[in-house]
Amino acid sequence: MNQVDQTIKVGIADMNVVKSPQTIRTSGLGSCVGVIIYDEYLNVAGLVHIMLPDSSHAKSGNLNHAKYADTGIAELIKLVMIKGGRANFLKAKIAGGAQMFPFLSNSDLMRIGPRNVDAVKLELEKYRIDLVASDVGGNQGRTIEFNPSTASLTIRTVNQGIKII
Amino acid sequence: MSFFNNITSNHIDILKEIGNIGAGHSATALSTLLNKKIDMKVPVVRVVSFDEMMELVGGPDHVVASVFLRIEGDAPGSMFFVLSLKQASRFIQYLTGEKNESYEDLVSSDLGLSALQELGNILSGTYLSSLSDFTNLNLYPTVPALSIDMVGAILGYGLLELSQVSDYAIIIDAAINEVDQQNHDCVNGQFFLLPDPDSFEKLFRALGVNEDESS
């Protein structure tokens, strides 16, 4: 396969890895958290679109690792390393975890945004991955795109335009 | 979830009927509210992956206005009333009499947003109470929340319960629209009802069908 200048899209509860000049994006992050793990010097980056904080409540037989923070991050690290990333050089950027509907926050499940963010941070710490930048919380959706060659994460929102971290 | 494996056409028909009754009553309510003829499309029941669900409303990036409420009581679930921005500003024009609401004004006008939220409240409340009467189940709506944002960010909330047990969602998709001869910009909106996983059995039982009749 030719590596052309293109953007790889990652769906909900999904993950993928790219190498520059490819970029990687995921759309419509609400309470979900987009986690990017990258090796800055080798221009390798992976993205996982996490929906839920932990897989221990999962009831279905075959687990989708990308759905949960605890399984998703471990799996993403593996994928990034297969693509050439080096364990000691991995860094992370995260975005998402919004509270879209603030006054429904009485239910635990509706507070999922902040819980997802906490779970992701915990996992990153566990694997000693430096969290370089984050744009989390708030009450709006985000579309994010990561460019491995510049290690920049572009975040687009409906009301606040574009932001790069 | 075993349920997805033994869903029959009988089940699908029941879910369609739920959409039919709910959206039918909502169409009547909307018609009374706006004093216009309102029609509805035959509801569609879809079993979709999460990504496919986003595509139904224009993709996860697409910006829509949506009223979201949780259903509490015997058969919990999530409900969305989704409008395109163009439709949303049209509704606001109808409701407030304001003629110059552009999309930009729409996002910033308190009166407009309040009118839209109330519209969503009335329509989804009607949907739900007719469903409640029909099934004899106690169903209570939470206070609805209005959000103008990306589809992915909004609909994601309706998937939270489901996502713990499944990678697929069953949605009851019902649309209502204004009956208008020439005008292509007539009002229309889409209802999405997403019962929580455990609610299907209760809905089916309330309507006299066994969940696992096929096995």
Keywords, please?
heterodimer; A: 165 residues; alpha+beta; five-stranded mixed sheet; 2 helices; 10 strands; 35% strand; globular; B: alpha+beta; eight-stranded antiparallel sheet; 8 strands; 26% strand
Helices, strands, pairings?
The complex is a heterodimer of chains A (about 160) and B (about 220).
Chain A lengths: L6 E4 L4 E5 L3 E7 L3 E7 L4 E7 L18 H14 L7 E7 L15 H15 L3 E7 L5 E6 L4 E5 L5 E3 L1
Parallel strand pairs in A: 1-3, 6-7
Antiparallel strand pairs in A: 2-5, 3-8, 4-5, 4-6, 8-9, 9-10
Helix pairs in contact in A: 1-2
Chain B lengths: L1 H4 L3 H26 L3 E3 L3 E6 H7 L6 E11 L3 E8 H12 L6 H6 L1 H26 L3 E3 L3 E6 H5 L4 H4 L4 E11 L9 E8 L3 H8 L9
Antiparallel strand pairs in B: 1-7, 2-7, 3-4, 3-5, 3-6, 4-8, 7-8
Helix pairs in contact in B: 2-6, 4-6
Q: How would you portray this structure in words?
A:
The complex is a heterodimer of chains A (165) and B (215). Chain A is 18% helix and 35% strand. In chain A, the strands form 2 sheets. Chain A has a 5-stranded mixed β-sheet with strand order 1-3-8-9-10, with no helix packed on it. Chain A has a 5-stranded mixed β-sheet with strand order 2-5-4-6-7, with helices on one face. Chain A is of the alpha+beta class. Chain A contains 2 helices and 10 strands. Chain A has helices at 69-82, 112-126; strands at residues 7-10, 15-19, 23-29, 33-39, 44-50, 90-96, 130-136, 142-147, 152-156, 162-164. Chain B is an alpha+beta fold. Helix content of chain B is 46%, strand content 26%. Chain A binds chain B through residues 11-14, 27-32, 51-52, 57-60, 64, 67, 98, 100-104, 107, 109-110, 112, 140-143, 158-159, and chain B through 1, 50-51, 54, 59-61, 63, 68, 70, 107, 142-143, 145, 147-154, 156-157, 159-161, 163-167.
